[in-house]
Amino acid sequence: MTSIRSDDFHRHMGVYGICVRKNQLLVIEKTLGPYTGQYDLPGGRPENYESLTQTIVREFYEETGFVVSNTKQLGVCDFNVLWTLKDNTAEQLHHIAIMYEVEVDTEQDPRSIKTFVGQDSKAAKWVPVTDLTSSNSSPLVMNAVKWFISRIFPVNDGFFDYRE
Hints:
By secondary structure, this protein is α+β, with helices and mostly antiparallel strands. It contains 2 helices and 9 strands. The longest helix is centred in the middle third of the chain and has 13 residues, at 52-64.
């Protein structure tokens, strides 16, 4: 593993949803963080006093415009990401992800994505699972693809280098 100073280390724990419709995965287009410009899963960090289920419902609505109708916890995965910050320094991110299978009313038209400081979703879209690759998608999306194919959630850790 690449060595990095301890003050350049960050741990992020979030709750993320996997939502599939007709062999398509609902993903967001990231505008912030190590997965900028890639597809990622809707989700994020719990707010104060918020349960994990409340977090996925809120994050899904904020980032996709869809109202969640049902959730099922699948498991937890974690991995390390090395990426370049805006000031051209490197940060190692330990990403801990609590994963949920999420159902939404796919017949509904999603509302527009909420805009606020820190919003990291430019758009939500349904992408065929076969079009999602490690070149265009975050490690979370790739774990979702593995789960979709096998119905077994992968929990192994990994290391990803996104430095420019």
